[in-house]
Amino acid sequence: MQPKIKIAASILSANPVRLEEEIKKIELADIDLIHIDVMDGHFVPNITMGPFIIEGIRRITQVPLDIHLMIEHPERFVKTFAASAQGGDLITFHIETTEKPEEIISLIKETGLKAGVSLNPDTPTELVEDLLDTLDMVLVMSVNPGFSGQKFMPKVLPKIGRLRSIAPDEFDIGVDGGITTETISQAVQKGANVIVAASAIFKTNDPCNAIKTLRKMAEQVVREKS
Ligand code: DX5
Ligand code: ZN
Fold first, then answer.
1. Which of 3, 39, 132, 221 is the least buried, fewest Cβ under 10 Å from its Cβ?
2. How confident is the model at residue 88, as a pLDDT?
3. pLDDT tens-place string over residues 13-28
4. Distance in angstroms (rounded) separating the CA atoms of residues 104 and 91
5. For residue 1, is it within any domain?
6. Which of 42, 147, 180 best tests ligand 1's pocket when mutated (most atoms within 8 Å of CB)?
7. Which residue's alpha carbon is nearest to atom 1 within ligand 1?
């Protein structure tokens, strides 16, 4: 069974000096999650936001925060990020960054947040299949992580399908990268229900309307499937 569609707005494409205004706009569309891309310049070739910004965001919105850690040694930073998000929903780390994912999942859960694991486009699902029972989400990257505005890679679609076929009921499967009105249906068709989008929301004239359109398209696919 495919759980409820959740739209996660990635603020990587928002105007960084007008973040509060940008967040207020997407709140009007009942956004489900604010997706925060944390990059360290090592695991990915880009540097973005850290706990300081997350603390600021937490002060201006009640929307659950979905923290996507694209960093080496995520275990060193779990507590700091959890503290900055103060009850914010979920921390996701990359399976490619660790040999001991179980320990990181436990660390995240100890903070009271949900735990997610992300897979790069070339990483096989086998690496996370045995972890599903301990996780709240698997986030399938549909671009190589590092930047917003890249092109969706259809080659990851079978991985979404595979994970949906073995995941427990109501398990969240996310897709991140290159989601637009052209690509969203394919990802939902395969079983993704947490839809991360940056440019398709913030690089439009009307982010609120963009969210509504993406949600409508995704829900339509779910209806047709059932
Ligand atoms: C990429 C990030 C994504 C990114 C998505 O490394 O993890 O969350 O912001 O951007 P779009 O939706 O523009 O592909
Ligand atoms: Zn992301």
1. 3
2. 81
3. 999 999 999 999 999 9
4. 10
5. no
6. 147
7. 145
